[in-house]
Amino acid sequence: MAAGLDTSPLPLMERLESDGRKGKARRPQTSKVCPKAKRPRLQGSSSAFPAEDNSLTCSLKSCSGLINPLNEKHVEIQAGLPENNVARFLLKCAVEWTGAGEATFHESCWKDVLKSARARNQKKAAIKMSLEERALVKEASKTAEFHDSFEDVRKEAARIASLVRGASHCIVFTGAGISTSAGIGDYRGKGGKWTEMDREAVTAMVAENLKPDAGTPREESADETADSGVPYEQLRPTYTHEALAKLLELDFLKHVISQNGDGLHHLSGIPPENLSELHGNVFLEICENCGHRYYRPFYVLDDHASLYFEELSDLGTTTIIKPKFAKQCELCGLSHRTSRKCEQRDCKGRLKDSIINFRDNLEEEILATAEQHAKLADLCLSLGTTMQVTPACDLVEMGRAPLRLVIVNRQRTGFDELCYRKERGGQQLGARVFGDCDSVMREVMKLLMTDADLRTWESQRWDRMRLYDSQ
What we know:
Largest sheet: 6 strands, parallel
Structural class: alpha/beta
Helix content: 25-40%
Order of helices and strands: EEEHEHHEHEHHEHEEEHEEHEEHEHHH
Number of strands: 15
Strand order of the largest sheet: 8-7-6-13-14-15
C-alpha cells in the first residue's frame, strides 16, 4: 500500500469498468439514473418476494399466458425498435414488444422464439417472424436476462449460506450488477451501455427495411445511445453492499475484490485493507510524487481535460482550451490529473485519479493483494458480473482445490459450468443463481444471522443512510 493512506469514509460513484472496446471508463456526460433509484428501498426481512398475484404476462402473442415468478422461471430481453413506422412494424410482430422494446417470456416460450428466429428454413419454424423481427430477437438474445423462480432462489440461497458457513477464506468478486439497484447502469445488461451500442447497427437495418420505398427486403446475412449522467454524490449502497460489509464484520468474509469504480463498497464501511478496487475509484486521487491517497467526498476526475485529448485524437482538432495542469497519459491517451496538488509537507506533487481506462495497467499492489486472497480462497462468490474483463476475471479460478464458485447474475457467463461440478461423493461444489443480487443476499442473510440480529441490523438502515449522507 502507498504511504499515508487516508481512511475517512467516502461517498459513492459510478461503476467504471475497463473494457476491450474503443472507449474510456469515464463519467458519462448525461444520466441513466432512475429518479426512483437514487435512494434504495428500505426493505425489511419479511420477504423480498412478490405475492402470488404479482404475475407477469408472456410477450409471445400466441401464448399471452401468465408467468408466476414464485414457481416459474422467466426471461427478459430488450431490442432496439425502429423510430419510424414502428406501429406498423409492431402489428406484424409475433412478440408483443413494449414501446421500449422490452419483452418477457416463459422460459419455454423464449426457447421457441429464439429457435424460430435462428431457423434456416422459416417455412418450418414454429413461430413465424419477419426478417426484421428475427434480427431484433437474435441481437437481444446476446444480453437476455434469466430469472430463476423464487422457490429456486430460496433453495440456492440455502446452499450458498451453507458454503459460506463452511468456508475458511471466503472472498467476493463484484461487478456492475450489485450497483444497478442504486441507480447505476450496467454495461452488458439488456439495457447496458455496451449493449445499446451493439444494438444500433441492427436497429438501423430494421429501420432501413421498413422505409416505404425500401423495395424488396434484402436477404438475411450472417448473424450509444447517450449515457445519462450519474449523480455519484447522491448514490447510496444497496442491500448487497451492506450485506457484504456485515459478513465481513461477522468474519464470514475475508476480502472483497471489485471491478466497480463507484465507491459504494468503501461507503458501506469496508476498510481499504479488505477491499481491492481493481479498476479504481472515482472518489480517490493519488499523488504522482509521494503516492499519498486521498478519499474525497466528491467526484475527482477532470473530464474536461480528458475530452480535450479525446477530441484531438478522434477529430484532429478541438475548441476546448487545454487546462494548464493536463497531461496526456501514454497508455490510455486521456488525462488522469485532477487539478489539485498534494497536501503533504514538502511535496506539492500533482494529484491524479485512480480510474483504470482502456489500455491502462492495473495498479500492481492492488492486483497483487487481490491475487493473494484469490489463491487463499476456498470459496468465491461472484456477484453481478459476466466476468469478461481480464485479468480481473482470472481471479475467480485461482482458489484452492476443490474450486467452490458461486455465481449470482442475470446473464450467463463463461464460468457457469464450474458451479455445477461435484465432489467425489456427488455433492455439488458451488451454486448458480439467475436473478438479482439483492434478492439472493436477503435470503442468504436470513440464514447466516439470527432472526433478532437480522431485524435489528435491517431496522438500522435509515441510521446508516444518515451516516452516508454526512460523509
